Amino acid sequence: MDTRFVASLLAIVEEGSFAAAARRVGVTASALSQRITTLETDLGVALLRREGRMVRPTHACRNLLPRLREMLRIEQDLRADVRGQGLVGSCRIGAISTALGDCAAPLLRHLREQAPDVELRLIPGTSPGLVAALEAEDIDMAVVVEPPVNLPKALRFDLLIEEPIGLLRPRHSEIARLPYLVYSREAWGGSLCWSALTDRVEDPQVLVEMDALETIAQMVEGGVGQAVLPGWRGLSRHAPGADFTPWSGARRRIGLLHRQRDADSPLVALVRAALR
């Protein structure tokens, strides 16, 4: 089985269309179609089905995806062993939005300098969603809020940074008691912020609740309300006209989540160093 054809199938599944996958892989859509036909003949099952303009994996294909991804990972490891460094192939990194804004540029620069043969894909998501994607092997690593529950033994969390949690208020506000714009309590970081708020304020007046830190920060700057948020590095870019006051003892911990089997991977080490 040609692993290039397997990589083409995974690209189609991830992109959702032949055209987008063809641009990513660097071949024509017709060539991709021929590769899928060859794979279906080799495996004896249909792998894709069309739904309007989108292409979806069949049930048989979904069952095969973890082993196909493992096949590509093994091939990449073999090539890396031959080259003696382990810094080659594709790398899919998921990240929460604030980490993506803070880390994307330095990560790209660092990998371009230290591992130019690595093809990087950055995938936004929520912490719980990215943990699930890592377990399903849809991504290779994730930058997430520290999970509030025990992780599966197959996964490992490496702490990268601790962010203070505090109060964000519009500068020179004339309103004595502003309502609160609440970082979603269903989010892991939002739960920490809500606990910090209710420890200090009895029965806070909630105006709106959302899992969109950048939007909340901009609304605070616009004078709509105040918010309890983590002080991520990019906060001042989104709310330059607001004042952030950290609260003692309240922190949000951000780290790199990866599989235990990859703990000694040179690529994981390189990504970890870049993010720190």
TrEMBL record:
Keywords: DNA-binding, Transcription, Transcription regulation. InterPro entries: LysR_HTH_N (IPR000847), LysR_subst-bd (IPR005119), WH-like_DNA-bd_sf (IPR036388), WH_DNA-bd_sf (IPR036390). Gene3D superfamilies: Periplasmic binding protein-like II (3.40.190.10), Winged helix-like DNA-binding domain superfamily/Winged helix DNA-binding domain (1.10.10.10). It holds the Pfam family LysR_substrate. The keyword DNA-binding applies. Residues 1-58 form the HTH lysR-type domain. It comes from the Bacteria. Belongs to the LysR transcriptional regulatory family. This is LysR substrate-binding domain-containing protein. The lineage of its organism: Bacteria, Pseudomonadati, Pseudomonadota, Alphaproteobacteria, Rhodobacterales.
